[in-house]
Structure of Cytochrome c553:
Amino acid sequence: MTNQNGKKKMIARVFVSLFTLGLLGSLMGTAHAADVKAGRKKAQMCAACHGIDGISKMPMAPNIAGSPAMYLEKQMKSFRSEERKDETMNVVAKPLSDADIADLAAWYSALTVDVTLPN
């Protein structure tokens, strides 16, 4: 009998865990979906340093075209929180919302870069 009760308790725990995961997943689904077009509009403020095409015109600003969206989001959030220090980027990123950051990351990650290997 105790073995049966143990199995029932374990099955109940599994169902509760799955239900909780499903509930959390549905709540997470309400998060902002990154918008490439919105990112292009927002990228106007980034263009002076990084270029609208993600290819920097300035030696101290990196090329960001084609960088993975997750990487770009992490870096922009790190600049916003000042976990990552850069005088310019800390100021630029400070007012950005998570949605702004996701849109910008979507835009710059959607850009493709042609690479020419040297001979």
